[in-house]
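Appendix B, record 7
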Amino acid sequence: MHAPLLSRIRPRNIVVFRALQLGDMLCAIPSLRALRMRCPDAAITLVGLPWAAGLAARFPHYIDDFLAFPGFPGLPERAPDLSAIPAFVAEAQTRGFDLAIQMHGSGGLSNPVVALFGAARQAGFGQPDENGSCLPYPTRGSEVGRLLALMDHLGAPSAYRRLEFPLLPADRSELATSGIAFALAGRPYVCIHPGARDPRRRWPAEHFAAVADAVHALTGWTVVLTGSGEERALTARVRQAMRVSAIDAASPISAGALAALIGGARLLVCNDTGVSHLAAALRTPSVVVFRCSELERWAPEDRMRHRCVMAPDDGTTTDQGQAEVMRQIRVLLDRGAPASTGRASA
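Structure tokens (predicted):
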């Protein structure tokens, strides 16, 4: 049996492929941290979706450079920009990578894409090979744990599973400029996030409204509805269904400004989507509603601070899901769950 790859080679120029959305990228931070600890002197480039350039810039201690991925036929994360692919491949090949690590899934299509980078060696998820460079994609465990299993296989073990999202002064400045912070006037608040990129993951707006009213009745906290600019119609539905007033903060603010808002909240109630992982990174207590996704894979690692509720769309109109969400909220309140600190790790 071979020794782990990173015990046999000393790469100086590494490229990591993970071109996914916010929550998926945050789940990869512990593995990027493990890679940096194993290869402290290597230049590490992340290939990700264009939006992730800003995310990569938050982690200069783990990521040295960034290449925007134009998409590729068959990969669903974005419509491919076919005209941009040749220039992207040429740029990747000029970088002279000596190791490419595929962290983008099981490898059926992503491994051929990574092969186009022209690295001297390729590793990651895939069918086992004679060099010990590939690990079959795990079918169990959390996303954080699956990615760390790959790092362990390659020789970069880590006991640190915490997520991170460093808040920058610009994040708080943008939040202040948006007017949201002014509207809060320093009052304690709960964030209600009814959106999700995949509509199948969205708990009904009326359920979020009922929970928001109940939390306000229990705590007196101001209710803040969060979402992207495209989710304004959804947050408006929640607001209209509520009995108490709420601040509708759905707007095209950046992920950093949204993180600053969530980082200051006493509690977040949301679907299984990227903001759940922001809350985990910022230590904001949360209750996460799962409808169709794998709880085992996507639930926050800290199940004491972050409570999860399965509420599948089974076609019924019962309020059992609402009751369970409120029960989990009361668990957090009864335990005196610490308010968020805005710190970068969980």
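Remarks on this record: The first helix runs from residue 5 to 8. The chain has two domains: 5-154, 169-334.
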